[in-house]
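Predict structure. Input: General substrate transporter, 541 residues.
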Amino acid sequence: MTIQSASTALVAARIQSHAASNRSKPRLNQLLQTMKTTSLFRKPPGYIVAALVCSLGGFIFGIDTGIIGPVTVMDDFKQYVGEPSPTVHGLIVSSILIPAAISSCFAGRVADALGRSRGIVIGSSIFALGAALEAASVHIAMFIVGRVIEGIGEGLYLGTVISYICEISPPRYRGSLTTAPQLLTTIGLVTGFFTCYGTVDITSSFSWRLPFLLLAAYAILYAAIVFVWLPPSPRWLSLRGRTDEAEQIWEKLGVAAADREKIMNQIDSSAIETDRPTDTEGSLPMAMAIGKPTRRTLPKSKKDKLLDVFSPDARTRFFLAVFLMGMQQLSGIDGVLYYAPLLFQQAGLDTNQSTFLASGVSAIVIFAVTIPATIYADQWGRRISTVLGGLGMTATMFLMGGLYAGGAVHAGEGAGRWVVIVCIYLFAVIYCISWAVSMKLYAAEIQPQRTRASATNIAHGSNWITNFLVALFTPSLLANSSYGAYFLFGGCTLFTALVCCVFMPETRGKSLDDIDLAFHGRSPVDGLKRLGRALKRGLRR
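Output follows.
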C-alpha cells in the first residue's frame, strides 16, 4: 500500500506539473512578446545599423592618430630613421595630412558621381594600402610614401562618412548619429595607444611595424563590410531620379514615412526640377498634389558643380564651415593627441612605458566622456557648447603656458607638473564634449543639399591643412619654447569662441529647411555689425 500510494502521489505530481507548465506557456509567450517590443530587446532600425557601420571609419582614423605619436618615440623606430630632429619628427607625423586635405576637396565629387558608400570603399581601400606600405617599409622614404597614400584614402572617405549619416538620419536623431564617428574615433585612440604600449618591449622593428600591420587589416576589413552591407544613400538616389530604388532603401533603413517626408523635403528646392507637369497654379508638381511620388532630378547645369559652394545662398555657410573645421585643429587637440608622449615627457614622465601608459589613460578618459556627449548631442545646443567649450579650453591652455613661462614645472618634483598633466586631461575632456561633437556636425548640417557633400569635404580639407601645420610645427615649438605652443593654441581657441558668438546661429532640433531659413540673408557684414553693436552696449555698461 505504501509503494502504491507513493506511485499515485508521484503520478499526480507529474500531472499537476504538466498542467502548470501548460498554464504558464501563455504567460511565457506574453513575456517574450513584451521583451521583443521593448526598446531594450527590439532590433534597432536599419538607419542606426547603417550609421554604426559607417562610423567604423572613425575607428580606423582614431587608430592611426593613436599609434603615430608613440611609434615615433620608440627606440627601434628612432634607430630606423636615425634620431630625427624636431622638424623631421613633425614631417613624419604630418605627411599624411596635406594629401588628405587635397583628396578631401575632391571627395565630394567622387561621392556625388559614384555614391556615398562607394566613395567610402575606395577611400578606405587606399588607406589600407598606405598602412601596409608603412608596415613593410625598408627605409624612411618608403614610410613617408605610405603615409602620403594613407592620407589620400583618409581624405576620400572621412568627410563622406559624415555626409552619408547626415543624409539617412531622422532630424531628431541626426546629432547623436552624426557624432557616432567621433565616439568610434576615441575607441580607435584607446586601441592605438595600448597597441603601442603592448609592442614597445618587442626588441625588433616589429615593435613599430605591428601596429601599422593591424591598421591595414582593420581598414581592408572596413572596406569589405561597407561594400557588402552599406546601402546607397536614398537622398543621393532621389537626386538622380532613381526614386523607386530610393523608396526600397528607405524601407530597408526603417525610416518612418513621416521622417522620410521631412528628410526629402529638406532638399533645396532651388536645385530641383521635376519631370512631371505642374498643377494649374504652377506651385506644386501635379503628382505631389495628388499624393504620388515624384521623380526628381537636378538640372544638368547645376549637378556636381564644385563651384556651387560659392553661390549666394551657400557661400556664407561654406565659409563658416571652413573656418570652424580649420580652427578646430588650431585649438591644439591633435598636438595633444599626436605628441602626448612628448607632452608627458616635458611634464616630467621620463620613460616610454610611463608616457605611453599616460597617453593610453588620456585616450580612455576621452572615450568615457565622448559617450554621454554622443548620447546627448541633440539635447545640447551647438552654439552654446562651442562657445563655452572654447572658453574652457582657452583657460586650460593659458594655465599650462603660464606655469611653464613662470618656471613652475620641474621634472621629478613639485606640484606644477601634476597640474600640467591634469590640464592635458581636462583640455581633452572639454574638447570631446564640445568642439568634437558640435563642429563636424554643424559643418555638415548647415549646408544646402546640393552642396553638402562638396562643402563638407572642402571644410574637412581646411581641417587637414591646419592639422598639418599643427603636426609639423608642434615638436619645434615644444623644443624651442616650453610655453609658446600653449599660448598660441589658447589664443586661437579664444578667437574662435568670439567669432562663434557672432556668426553661429543655433541649429539644435531644427530641420534642414529651418536651418536654411536661419541663414537666409546672413552675411559677414551683418555679423560684424552685430558684433559692433554688442561691443558698444558693453562699453556703455
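The chain has a mean pLDDT of 77.
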